Amino acid sequence: MNIQQLFEQIKKKQSVLCVGLDTDLDKIPNHLLESEDPIFEFNKAIIEATHSYTVAYKPNTAFYEAYGIKGWQSLQKTIDYLNTHYPNIFTIADAKRGDIGNTSSRYAKAFFEDLGFDSVTTAPYMGKDSMEPFLAFDGKFTIMLALTSNPGAFDFQTQKIGKAELYKKVLETSTTWENSNRLMYVVGATKAEYLADIRKIVPDSFLLVPGVGAQGGSVEEVFKYGANSKAGLLINSSRGVIYASNSLDFAEAAASEAKKLQEQMAPYIAAL
Ligand SMILES: O=C(O)c1cc(=O)[nH]c(=O)n1[C@@H]1O[C@H](COP(=O)(O)O)[C@@H](O)[C@H]1O
């Protein structure tokens, strides 16, 4: 899908909610474990319950890779389900890839062409030639880590390289790359006060903001500092939505959490 369609979804649903499909067999309701593919059955039920409040889904590939080939099959079925039934919902493979050029181009092919995701998350540590193979894909988006939500973000990302912090350098440099209009950036909701500075460097880009819910970030703060005139945000919650209940009512409970988040977002989107 293209950016225009994403803007339209945001307007129509009055939401920038991205639901993270971090599906863990130890956390899903027991009754699903008897089915042939519990991960897919869980995801399908979550998608059906939450899609009207949601503009993006983000399966984190670690939760699928952890189960080997069966996990990859569950991931494939999940993205196929989304592309078939909800083609207007943006899809993110949260894989945090990045390597020397020829390897990155294989990662890009895997997530964009083989699996058919709209976007993939990447780690920029290896620099321009490790990101460009992702950016070469027309109609696809590369969501690069900028300032992450975890405490370790302060180990490197906020350290100064010359006058500027590393994360600012990453943002500034990336805007000079070819096809930089295909870039989005990850900024943790737990670092909302940094968003105003980040917006000065990338005023028009989409920011994927994980860390509300289980990690303690606030929707209000993210909008206050991070929204641009078209929102320009995708705010992710994974555990807070998908594990709202672990019994028979899990899908209804997820819908209710997703609705709560959408209702928190709506007034800010209406005011843009
Ligand atoms: O790239 C990400 O999505 C990401 C970046 C980041 O800085 N922090 C972060 O939590 N994430 C991911 O966002 C999701 C957050 O999950 P919850 O804390 O359960 O909402 C996980 O899949 C994380 O891997």
TrEMBL record:
One of its GO terms (biological process) is 'de novo' pyrimidine nucleobase biosynthetic process. The keyword Oxidoreductase does not apply. The keyword Lyase applies. Pathway: Pyrimidine metabolism; UMP biosynthesis via de novo pathway; UMP from orotate: step 2/2. Its EC number is 4.1.1.23. It holds the Pfam family OMPdecase. SMART domains: OMPdecase (SM00934). GO terms for molecular function: orotidine-5'-phosphate decarboxylase activity. Keywords: Decarboxylase, Lyase, Pyrimidine biosynthesis. It catalyses: orotidine 5'-phosphate + H(+) = UMP + CO2. Residues 16-254 form the Orotidine 5'-phosphate decarboxylase domain. The active site is at K96. Coiled coil: none annotated. It comes from the Bacteria. InterPro entries: Aldolase_TIM, OMPdecase_type-2, OMPdeCOase_dom, RibuloseP-bd_barrel. Belongs to the OMP decarboxylase family. Type 2 subfamily. This is Orotidine 5'-phosphate decarboxylase. It comes from Leeuwenhoekiella aequorea.
